[in-house]
Each structure stands twice: as structure tokens, then as C-alpha cells.
């Protein structure tokens, strides 16, 4: 058992083991700048000494020259986004000049700065994941500057959700950062997403979670005698322990009451302890507070309403007390151990000159305020905050508590607060404000707008809830004009994200039918065609492509609705395998001087990312890779600049990987796609973007010849039927079939490729580059069903010639050559090389060179194919070329000479 002895704090009794652990990790941190980071989690019920251990952590760390940043959650402050992380970082950032802070945060300044309250927010909704990453980057950069750095977070169970999201992300990868994080929390008092985040924090630590226990009877006796004198008898000490349950905080408070009452610590007085203990908490505390007088009570209530940054002047204004009376009340509450002066040793900065002695007291005081008065005081607090110029968002936590009263101004303030929350990346805070605004309720003329704004706030986090809000808004007559069209489009997007594709199409179709011809109707028609175009189902509206072609034929690209239709027409024609030159003519008309038109950028909200991905992908599959890569790279830059690091960034990396893959830069493709998949894991499995990242990575690994890795990725990430309801590029069935063939599951591979054939035919999709099932199926059937294989090759070649790109025709000729023998195979292979040499797709060119070199026994072509394969990163193809060259060399040496048919692409026989 731990030796009972007095320490600097009563809450540190019997904490030798915990202090030893803290000392050890601080010493490790200070040993070397390259030391790995550490995370300690302290868990215990209220009053068991978590705060005291954090204070001891600060003392130990500062004694060794560490920088210590501290923050604390608050029960009434959980709705304030970024509250705790601001406490941690603001002091360090505000101590810098603005230019210095901008330099330290770099590209993250405009993303994380508004959340931290050191920069003005932009005019767009911030991506919550991007803001979280910006905060992680901010701490990482500052940690290197301020090494050795210790971060302490007290009462993490009361931290705001945005801080907990950051904390779980930050602590996930501490190994490469020299920083110590110590988190203290209660085991309960949390639910939902907050629980998930705190569990993730606990899972990130390499040290066992420290679970604090109550004092043992000997420790309680030692503390009693250290406080009241060595003459305290054993029976009295045992009763102190029994009454408090060994809770250190309650023990200290009880012993203070014993001292105040001048009670002798003897067995005869032990019966008084329970009554004294009741007066230190709950109803007893409230009664004790009332004994201090009405002014002191109002002062304490006002302090509880404020929750943080408690100053005498602010409390006086809220409690309607003059300054002198407020000062006297503050002193009275200090003497009663209800309020205290903030401990400078905590390191928390701010204007506060008062705080509650313990969170238990703050909770008891807050809950003692009569309900109607508490709501009224929150209303006054909101006005005080607003009048101080801190904005609607700062006042919103008080506005949320005001009693609904048909207040038009309150609705306006809550809407303004929601907008400010969205601008800094706190959609849940915006949702709370707008849901509260609906309770007021809003005036009929703005009710639908509030519902629409609420739908936008929940769009990223709760698509199903968004659907309900927007449907209700659209049922109100006050939502009309462009606002109504916006709501219909957003509703269709939410339905799409909720895997209700048919309902999304029907929604825009019905609304478009209500409108007269014009830009609004054309926009809805474009959205309808867009959703139909990305739908992967086996049914398609009869005559859809013809209707789209007719409508696009009337468009000149004079506005974004017309440009959208031209994009959709180009994408549809590309997927159907129409002539590539005609396809790109439509796509080129979309651009203004080679660039995206204003309002049609990657971060513009009116159209969404799907439309621009269609445009760029049309260029990918029509051999216009220069333009496709330009668009994809612009997307990546736009999203990184805007801090959009969720699904948008997943798609940007995935499609950059696709462009690299088509270009033949296979190692670069794999790198981009692995990053995309890493980000996609964070966004969520099963989404179309997750399929896009996985499908492209599997395809790239197969092309590189890394078959085992491709299979492992497919198995780990669920790349198997059932497939998503939206189009994925390239075709996942074709990729899955190729994978099955590569691992030797020939029958399964043939079945998968035949399913790809059926699905493509039902949609009228005949692009031989995107849907490459025919080439692989023909090769797979060459032995067991050569007649069918030949028919497939002929049809494949016909579609490639109709499409007309060098890549398509060259690949079709490669397939035809693989099914032939002798001179005909050589001629077909030579023609494939000629086409693919003009193609931007270097891997396909390399494969054609190697295949021709083998058929024609041409050393020159094998050597060129080998060089191309190596430059592409096509390891298996390069190995094949090397083996053929080695075999030919050995054969030549054995025979003393070699002859070979020459003449076509290469001229050095093997």
C-alpha cells in the first residue's frame, strides 16, 4: 500500500504511482527533440483528484523547462464550438504578431484561423474535416517551435464536439511529434459522437488508462490529522472516510467545514459530520448560498450563467448589481468557498478574475436557478455578449436557452449565428441554432428559409434529416424563385447521398415540369440528366440520350445552365462510345478561354463536384489527358486552399491517380490513389467515392503486375459485389473481372466480365476504354470458345474505330493480335504499336511494343518496350521483356547466330 504522507495537495494523497508515470513521460519528452510523443489519460469520478494531477503535471513539466498549455471543458459550454482547443492555442498565437502567426500556420491560416478566433472567416461554409486537419497542423507546427511542449485537457467529458474531433485526430499519430498530451475525464457524462471521440483518444495511448480510486481509510485519517491536528481520534477519522466515501475533494470540503464550525475531532462529534457534508454540496450548498443573502445568490447565479471568463464587471451587469456591491458579493462567495481566484498555475489565460471552486459547485448553483429566471438571464447574457461586439455566434449558447416567445429578432440572431458557425466549420453548432429558431417559431414568410438553411447545415452530417427539412420547406408557399430551385437541387443531392437515386431524379423532374422555359427550368433539367447519367442501375429512361442531345444542340454555352448541359451531353456521348472528336467539341464549348467559367468552379456550390468530374473524365477517355490533368490538379489546389479535406479531397486524389494511370505514370498513380483511399477510410466505407479510390488502386496495381497486392486491397476494402448505385470510373466489374483472372479464378473472372457486358449493354455504354471487359473476356475465352472470342474481338474493334481515339484502336488491335498467330498476328501487333505510339497512354504503348517484339522477335522493340515499361513503373511487363531478351540472347549464343523476320516497327532481329 502507498505510504500515507502529507503532500502539496490533498488530492495527491496515494498518487505516488501516477506521479511517477507522469515524471517518467516528461523526462522522456525532455531527453531529446526527436523523442516520440506520449498520451496519458486520467479517468475518475468527480473529486478524485484529476485536476490536482494535471496541476502536478504542470509543476513537474515547468520545473524541467517545458512549455505547458492547458484547457478545461465546461458543462454549460459544450455547445460552444472549438472552445477548448481555443483555450489551448489562442495564448500562443495571440502572443505573436499577426504576420508571425500567419507564417507559422502557412496555408492553414485561413482554414484554422477562424476556428481559433484569430482570423476572419471566409464567405463559404468551411469543411469541418479540413478545419480539423488545420488545427492538427497548427499544433504540430507550434509544438516543434515550443519543444518540449505539454498539453493538458481537464474535464474532457465536457469538451465541445469540435475539440474532441480535433483531439482524437491529433492523438492518433503522436509518435513522430515530441509532445506530451494529458487528458482528464470522468467515465460518464457523455454520449453519441463525443463518446466515440473520447474512446478513440483512450485507444491511442500506449500507456494504460489511469483509473483513479478513492482514498483508503488510512489516507483519509492521515489527511484528517494533517488538517485538524494529530489529536483527531481514530473513530472521528473513520467517520470522515465513511461520510465522504474517500473522495478527496469532499474530504477537503468536509474538513474545512469542521474547521469553520470549530468542531473537536473526537468520536463524540462524529455524528455531526454527515450534516456538515450535506451543506457542502447539492441542496445543502444551495441553502448555504441563500444564507449569504439575495445579492450574493444573484451574483453566484450570474457567474454560473456566464460559465467562463467570469469577471466582477460582467457578473455585476448580468446580476444588475452596482460595482461596489458586486465586489462585496465576490468576496463573500470566496470566503464561503463557492468562488475563488483562478489559479495562475493552471496556465489558462483570459480575462477571468473568478471561477468556481469546483465543477460540482458550478453545476449545483446553475441547477438551483429557477427555470424562468435562468432563461431570462441567458437572454440578458446574450445581449451583453452581442453589445460587446463579439458576434451572434458567441451569444448563441445563451440564445439557445431563451424561452421561445415568437421573437422575430431572436430568429434573426440565431440564423446569423448559424451562418457564423458554418463559416468556421461547425455545422452541428449551426444545426442547434436553426433547430432552436424553429421553436420560436419564425414568421411564416421566413419559416421555409430557416428550414432550407437547416437542411444545408445537416447536409454533410445527416442526409436523411436534410431530406425531411427540405421537403417541409418545399411544401411552404413562401419558398419560391431561385431559393426554391436551390432547395430542390439540394434535396436531390441529399437523396442521392442517401442512396435514393430514383427519388432524386423524380424530384427534379417534377419541379422542372412546373416551370416555364428559362434558366431555372434548364438548370433542373441539367440536374436530372446529371443524376440519370451517374446512375449505375440497369434501367434508363427511354430516349434519354436523344433528348439530352436535342436539348444540348440548342445550347451555345452562354450561361452555366447551358454549359452544364453541354458537359452532360459530352459525358453521355463518351460513355456511349460516340466519335471522340464530336464528344470533345461539346466539352470544349464549356470552357471560357480554356478555363472554367465563373460560378462553375470546383468549390462553387450551385452545381456540385459531380458535373466537373464528368467534364474532366470525358477528356480522360478521349485522349485529352493534358486538359483532364489540368482540371484535376485545379480541383486539388482549390480544395486544399479552401480546406475541404473530406469527400472532395478523396475524389481529387482519386481522379489525379486516374489521370496518372492513363498517362502511364503508374508509381505516381499508386501514390495518389493510396492517399485517396486513406482519406476515404475517414469519410466512410460504402460511399461511391470509396469505390472510386479502391477500384482505381486495384486497376493500377494490376497494371503494375502487383497481383497479390491488388487482391489484398480488394479483400481489405470490400471490392466485390454488390456494386454502388452510381457510375464508377473505370468500370468496377471490368476491373474485378481482370483481378479474378489475374489470381487464377478464371471461371469467376469470365462470369464477372459477362456481367459487365450485360450491364454495359443495358445502359447503352460502349466506350471500349472505360469498359474494357471485351478485351479481357476475349483473351479468357480464346482457348475454350475461340469463335466467341473472335466475335468479341471484332465487335470490340468496331466500337474502337467508331470512338476513334488512338488508344481505343490500338488496344483493340492488341486484343486482335493476341487471338491470331503467325504473320497476321505480327501485322496486327505492328498496327497496334503504330496507333499507341501516338497515344498519350504510355503503358499501353509499352505493352504493345513488348508484345510486338515477342511476336516479331525484334530486339529493338523489346528494348524500347522494356525502357517504356521501366519508365511507367510497369514491373511485371518490364520483367517479361527482360526475360524475353535474356532467352533470346541465350538462344543466339547457343546457335551462334539468329535470324528473324524484320521490317515492321523494329529492325534488329533476335
TrEMBL record:
Residues 14-182 form the Orc1-like AAA ATPase domain. Residues 890-900 have a biased composition (Low complexity). The keyword Nucleotide-binding applies. InterPro entries: AAA_16 (IPR041664), P-loop_NTPase (IPR027417), TPR-like_helical_dom_sf (IPR011990), TPR_rpt (IPR019734). The keyword ATP-binding applies. Residues 890-910 are annotated as: Disordered. Keywords: ATP-binding, Nucleotide-binding. It comes from the Bacteria. This is AAA family ATPase. It comes from Streptomyces hirsutus. The lineage of its organism: Bacteria, Bacillati, Actinomycetota, Actinomycetes, Kitasatosporales.
Amino acid at each position: 500500500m502507498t505510504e500515507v504522507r502529507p503532500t502539496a495537495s490533498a488530492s495527491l494523497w496515494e498518487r505516488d504511482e501516477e506521479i511517477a508515470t507522469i515524471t517518467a513521460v516528461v523526462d522522456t519528452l525532455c531527453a531529446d527533440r526527436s523523442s516520440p510523443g506520449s498520451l496519458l489519460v486520467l479517468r475518475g469520478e468527480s473529486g478524485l483528484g484529476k485536476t490536482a494531477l494535471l496541476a502536478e503535471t504542470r509543476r513537474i513539466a515547468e520545473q524541467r523547462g517545458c512549455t505547458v498549455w492547458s484547457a478545461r471543458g465546461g458543462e454549460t459550454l459544450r455547445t460552444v464550438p472549438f472552445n477548448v482547443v481555443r483555450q489551448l492555442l489562442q495564448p500562443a498565437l495571440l502572443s505573436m504578431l499577426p504576420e508571425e502567426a500567419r507564417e507559422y500556420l502557412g496555408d492553414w491560416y485561413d482554414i484554422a484561423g477562424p476556428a481559433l478566433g484569430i482570423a476572419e472567416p471566409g464567405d463559404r461554409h468551411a469543411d469541418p474535416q479540413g478545419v480539423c486537419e488545420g488545427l492538427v497542423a497548427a499544433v504540430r507546427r507550434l509544438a516543434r517551435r515550443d519543444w518540449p511542449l505539454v498539453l493538458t485537457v481537464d474535464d474532457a467529458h465536457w469538451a465541445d464536439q469540435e475539440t474532441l474531433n480535433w483531439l482524437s485526430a491529433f492523438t492518433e499519430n503522436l509518435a513522430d511529434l515530441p509532445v506530451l498530451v494529458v487528458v482528464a475525464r470522468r467515465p460518464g457524462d457523455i454520449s453519441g459522437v463525443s463518446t466515440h471521440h473520447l474512446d478513440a483518444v483512450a485507444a491511442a495511448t500506449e500507456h494504460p488508462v489511469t483509473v483513479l480510486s478513492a482514498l483508503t481509510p488510512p489516507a483519509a485519517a492521515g489527511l484528517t490529522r494533517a488538517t485538524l491536528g494529530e489529536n483527531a481520534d481514530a473513530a472521528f477519522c473513520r467517520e470522515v472516510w465513511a461520510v465522504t466515501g474517500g473522495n478527496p475533494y469532499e474530504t477537503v470540503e468536509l474538513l474545512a467545514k469542521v474547521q469553520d464550525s470549530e468542531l473537536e475531532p473526537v468520536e463524540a462529534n462524529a455524528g455531526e459530520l454527515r450534516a456538515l457534508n450535506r451543506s457542502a454540496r447539492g441542496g445543502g450548498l444551495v441553502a448555504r448560498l441563500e444564507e449569504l443573502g439575495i445579492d450574493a445568490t444573484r451574483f453566484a447565479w450570474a457567474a454560473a450563467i456566464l460559465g467562463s471568463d467570469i469577471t466582477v464587471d460582467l457578473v455585476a451587469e448580468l446580476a444588475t448589481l452596482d460595482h461596489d456591491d458586486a465586489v462585496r458579493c465576490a468576496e463573500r462567495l470566496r470566503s464561503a468557498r463557492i468562488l475563488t481566484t483562478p489559479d495562475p498555475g493552471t496556465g489558462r489565460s483570459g480575462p477571468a478574475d473568478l471561477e468556481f471552486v469546483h465543477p460540482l459547485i458550478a453545476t449545483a448553483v446553475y441547477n438551483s436557478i429557477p427555470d424562468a429566471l435562468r432563461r431570462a438571464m441567458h437572454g440578458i447574457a446574450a445581449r451583453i455578449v452581442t453589445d460587446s461586439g463579439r458576434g451572434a455566434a458567441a451569444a448563441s449558447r445563451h440564445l439557445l436557452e431563451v424561452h421561445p416567445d415568437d421573437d422575430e429578432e431572436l430568429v434573426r440572431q440565431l440564423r446569423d449565428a448559424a451562418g457564423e458557425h458554418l463559416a468556421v466549420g461547425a455545422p452541428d453548432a449551426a444545426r442547434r441554432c436553426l433547430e432552436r429558431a424553429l421553436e420560436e417559431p419564425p414568421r411564416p414568410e421566413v419559416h421555409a428559409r430557416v428550414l432550407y438553411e437547416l437542411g444545408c447545415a445537416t447536409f454533410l452530417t445527416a442526409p436523411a434529416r436534410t431530406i425531411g427539412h427540405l421537403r417541409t420547406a418545399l411544401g411552404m408557399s413562401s419558398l419560391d424563385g431561385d431559393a426554391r430551385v436551390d432547395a430542390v437541387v439540394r434535396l436531390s443531392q441529399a437523396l442521392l447521398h442517401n442512396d435514393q437515386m430514383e427519388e432524386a431524379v423524380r424530384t427534379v423532374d417534377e419541379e422542372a415540369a412546373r416551370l416555364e422555359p428559362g434558366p431555372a427550368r434548364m438548370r433542373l433539367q441539367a440536374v436530372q440528366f446529371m443524376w440519370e447519367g451517374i446512375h449505375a442501375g440497369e434501367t434508363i429512361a427511354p430516349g434519354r440520350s436523344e433528348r439530352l442531345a436535342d436539348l444540348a444542340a440548342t445550347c451555345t454555352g452562354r450561361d452555366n445552365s447551358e454549359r452544364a448541359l453541354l458537359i452532360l451531353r459530352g459525358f453521355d456521348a463518351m460513355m456511349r462510345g460516340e466519335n471522340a472528336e464530336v464528344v470533345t467539341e461539346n466539352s470544349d464549348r464549356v470552357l471560357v478561354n480554356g478555363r472554367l467559367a465563373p460560378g462553375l468552379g470546383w468549390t462553387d456550390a450551385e452545381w456540385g463536384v459531380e458535373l466537373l468530374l464528368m467534364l474532366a473524365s470525358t477528356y480522360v477517355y478521349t485522349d485529352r489527358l493534358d486538359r483532364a490533368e489540368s482540371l484535376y490538379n485545379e480541383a486539388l489546389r482549390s480544395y486544399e486552399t479552401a480546406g475541404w479535406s473530406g469527400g472532395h479531397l478523396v475524389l481529387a486524389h482519386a481522379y489525379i491517380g486516374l489521370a496518372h494511370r492513363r498517362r502511364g505514370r503508374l508509381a505516381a498513380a499508386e501514390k495518389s490513389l493510396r492517399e485517396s483511399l486513406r482519406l476515404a477510410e475517414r469519410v466512410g466505407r460504402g460511399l461511391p467515392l470509396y469505390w472510386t479510390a479502391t477500384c482505381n488502386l486495384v486497376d493500377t496495381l494490376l497494371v503494375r503486375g502487383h497481383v497479390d497486392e491488388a487482391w489484398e486491397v480488394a479483400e481489405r476494402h470490400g471490392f466485390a459485389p454488390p456494386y454502388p448505385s452510381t457510375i464508377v470510373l473505370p468500370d468496377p466489374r471490368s476491373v474485378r473481372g481482370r483481378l479474378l483472372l489475374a489470381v487464377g479464378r478464371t471461371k469467376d473472372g469470365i462470369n464477372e466480365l459477362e456481367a459487365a457486358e450485360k450491364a454495359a449493354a443495358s445502359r447503352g455504354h460502349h466506350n471500349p476504354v472505360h469498359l474494357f471487359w471485351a478485351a479481357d473476356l476475349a483473351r479468357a475465352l480464346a482457348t475454350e470458345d475461340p469463335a466467341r472470342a473472335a466475335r468479341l474481338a471484332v465487335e470490340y474493334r468496331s466500337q474502337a474505330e467508331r470512338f476513334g481515339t488512338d488508344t481505343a484502336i490500338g488496344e483493340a488491335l492488341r486484343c486482335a493480335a493476341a487471338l491470331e498467330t503467325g504473320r497476321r498476328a505480327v501485322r496486327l501487333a505492328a498496327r497496334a504499336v503504330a496507333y499507341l505510339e501516338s497515344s498519350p497512354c504510355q503503358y499501353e504503348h509499352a505493352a504493345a511494343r513488348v508484345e510486338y517484339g515477342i511476336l516479331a522477335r525484334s530486339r529493338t522493340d523489346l528494348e524500347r518496350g522494356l525502357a517504356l515499361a521501366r519508365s511507367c513503373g510497369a514491373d511485371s511487363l518490364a520483367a517479361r521483356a527482360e526475360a524475353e531478351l535474356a532467352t533470346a540472347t541465350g538462344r543466339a549464343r547457343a546457335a551462334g547466330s539468329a535470324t528473324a523476320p524484320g521490317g515492321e516497327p523494329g529492325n534488329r532481329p533476335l
